[in-house]
Write a structure and sequence with these properties.
The chain has 67 residues and is mainly alpha-helical. It is 66% helix and 0% strand. The protein has a domain at 8-52.
Length: 67
């Protein structure tokens, strides 16, 4: 019935190291791209937004319009 003894200092350091590794992975994904990749991604996002906006209905018409 004895519990395992845990050194809290080592536990805290290990947890901090895991958190740093997780954050580093996120940063590598976000900032580890070439300039061409960033431009391509931004261009595609703008194209997607413009295509979506082109399909929006115009709600400014009068209520009697059958559109």
């Amino acid at each position: 019935m004895t519990a395992d003894v845990i050194n809290l200092r080592q536990f805290k350091r290990a947890k901090a190291r895991e958190d740093q590794d997780r954050q580093a992975e996120v940063n590598r994904a976000a900032f580890g791209r070439t300039k061409a990749q960033r431009i391509l991604e931004k261009t595609r996002a703008l194209q997607d937004k413009s295509k979506l906006d082109a399909h929006l209905r115009d709600e400014t018409g009068s209520p009697s319009d059958p559109a």
